[in-house]
Amino acid sequence: MEIVREVARKNAAVIFTKSWCCMCHSMKALLYELGASPAVYELDQHVNGTQMEWGLRALGCCPVVPVVFIGGTLVGSAEDIISLHVDGSLKHMLINAKAIWL
User: Fold this and answer.
1) What distances in angstroms separate CA 75 from CA 14, 47, 69, one per listed residue?
2) Which of 5, 10, 69, 73 has the maximal Cβ count within 10 Å?
3) Residue 90: predicted pLDDT
4) Residue 1 has what pLDDT?
């Protein structure tokens, strides 16, 4: 779990994904579309991917991917990100975390 927290602390926006996951691809595309360049960790391709996956599970993430952290805070999975985008607060969260600039 510590490796996940460390990665989240060091980056304005982070997304944990798996290379074969279509929802992961969609969430990355949304963040890019909003102007963010999140740190992307493909768990199935990262040397510490299994350890990160267990860390995400320990934090209560289910499903484990995609999972987004913004400003060091766990934001949630695809459903959470989409809800925040629809109500307009996702972009503000990214701005406040300095993951995007206007």
Assistant:
1) 10, 24, 5
2) 69
3) 98
4) 81
Residue listed under structure tokens 């995400």: 56
3-class DSSP string for the chain: CHHHHHHHHHCCEEEEECCCCHHHHHHHHHHHHCCCCCEEEECCCCCCHHHHHHHHHHCCCCCCCCEEEECCEEEECHHHHHHHHHCCHHHHHHHHCCCCCC
Contacts for 26 with CB less than 8 Å, ≥ 6 apart: 78
Q: What is the pLDDT of residues 33-90, one digit of tens each?
A: 999 999 999 999 999 999 999 999 999 898 889 999 999 999 999 999 999 999 999 9
Q: State if pTM tops 0.90.
A: yes
Residue 98: Cβ within 10 Å count: 10
